[in-house]
Design brief:
The chain has 272 residues and is an alpha/beta fold. Helices cover 41% and strands 19% of the residues. It comes from Actinoplanes digitatis.
Length: 272
């Protein structure tokens, strides 16, 4: 693949960018299976988000906390937060983004989605079950949450777990992995912006926090995260005036979602 991109980058960068765009928006082959969150007592639901079916579950009664997974994930990855929040007198709503878990396909097919589709799904679910006492979001779900907040979604508190600070850095990483240079990279960014309908800087999470007033925010990031570097979480916490950063060690990108100390800190922050 790298050899093919190297040739196309010189001979046909427009074709290379089209191929890279397809890769960019395609979920990993090991995307999560469709299954309910493994927590008893939840009621399933389906809502429509810009014409797409979004499936989820709801538990408990009280101020509502929304759980949002990341790219290629599913709602069950945040199951550790459900029972502690319900026990504190909160209603918990977890859902799968388009093309993920039990939700229907995204606008470009069953293995394709985007940050705007994530953000639209969150906005639709909050409209159905809100207002949002808090949103707890993982990885790219944090990017989508920031976009939704910038576009007017109200929320009392935000928790960003291993957040992706900017898709631009991942575009550069994709270019390095696939072995294409500036001719293809520039065309890729143009194609991505054309598909999602906004400039890439609209997804820069630190800058979004400088553009609008964000609610009190807890950022939790692990030093050993190989997918979203801890520097991104630190940049968000520094840029958002009402944010604080908690750095863990040895948990990586996903284990922090199940770590008892992280869960306890997040629940305390949300319910304070």
């Amino acid at each position: 693949m790298r050899a093919a991109f190297a040739v196309l980058n010189r001979a046909a960068p427009a074709l290379a960018a089209r191929w890279a765009e397809h890769i960019w928006f395609t979920l990993p082959g090991a995307a999560a299976p469709a299954r309910p969150v493994p927590v008893p007592g939840g009621r399933t639901f389906t809502v429509r988000a810009e014409g797409l079916d979004v499936a989820g579950q709801v538990w408990g009664e009280g101020p509502t906390v929304f759980l949002m997974h990341g790219w290629g994930g599913h709602a069950g990855q945040l199951a550790s937060f459900v029972t502690p929040l319900v026990d504190r007198g909160h209603r918990v709503v977890a859902f799968d983004a388009p093309s993920h878990g039990r939700s229907g396909p995204g606008a470009y097919g069953p293995r394709s989605s985007s940050v705007p589709e994530f953000a639209a799904a969150l906005t639709a679910v909050v409209a159905e079950f809100g207002p949002a006492r808090a949103v707890i979001a993982h990885s790219m779900g944090g990017t989508a949450t920031a976009v939704a907040l910038c576009d007017g979604l109200p929320a009392g508190r935000i928790v960003l777990l291993a957040p992706m600070a900017s898709p631009v850095s991942h575009a550069r990483e994709l270019a390095d992995v696939l072995g294409f240079g500036e001719p293809t990279y520039r065309r890729l960014i143009a194609r991505v912006e054309r598909r999602v309908g906004v400039p890439m800087h609209h997804f820069d999470v630190p800058e979004l926090g400088r553009a609008v007033a964000m609610p009190p925010t807890l950022v939790v990031h692990d030093r050993d995260d190989r997918y979203t570097p801890v520097a991104g979480g630190a940049a968000i916490a520094e840029a958002w005036p009402a944010a604080r950063l908690h750095v863990t060690e040895g948990l990586g990108h996903r284990r922090l979602l199940r770590d008892p100390d992280v869960v306890a800190e997040v629940v305390d922050f949300v319910t304070a």
